[in-house]
Amino acid sequence: RTNSGTCDLSAGDWLVCAASRAAFDRELIRKIDAYAPDVVVLAGFMRILSPMFVAHYYGRLLNIHPSLLPKYPGLHTHRQALENGDEEHGTSVHFVTDELDGGPVILQAKVPVFADDSEDDITARVQTQEHAIYPLVIGWFAQGRLKMRDNAAWLDGRRLPPQGYASDE
To answer: What is the C-alpha to C-alpha distance for residues 14 and 150, in angstroms, rounded to an integer?
Structure first.
């Protein structure tokens, strides 16, 4: 963010600059729509998305979050797990809605938290799971198996439970 507006590197090497948040979102949508995507996958995109952006890609906007949602939305999830003495932590893939990290969960992967763990230890363990489950979920979407309907995640025609599928591997 600069005094003259907003600039951000998004979706590869694009530099999107705009005088306002709304103008930024319109320009980002224009750039993404040029590719006519079936799905928009967020990874490391650390901006809260506007309702306009979310509505434009509703039902085809995926995010991965480093916690077992709904626990620990937002930032510093590994630190929170350590501070709270959690024995397990993990990652969630979810559809994006207007609620921060509150969209329907599709798949979760759990990892243990050990007494002598640091944030870096947990980060490494969680990232290993993220690299396994995110491509799986993207594949389900690409195969037409995964949908968002009635503000819920559906896989193979079945409504997923609020925590989505869980993977302990």
So the answer is: 34
Contact 97, 42 (CB under 8 A): no
| Cis peptide leading into residue 70 (ω within 30°) | yes
Give per-residue pLDDT as tens, 79-128. 999 999 999 999 999 999 999 999 999 999 999 999 999 999 999 999 99
Give pTM, 2 decimals: 0.88
pLDDT of 39: 98
Q: For 158, phi and psi rounded to 5 degrees?
A: -115, 135
What are the catalytic residues? Answer: 65
Cis amide linkage into residue 73, ω under 30° from 0: no
Which amino acid is residue 101, in one-letter code?
A: D
Distance linking the first and last C-alpha atoms of the chain: 40
Q: 147 pairs with which residues across the strands?
A: 154
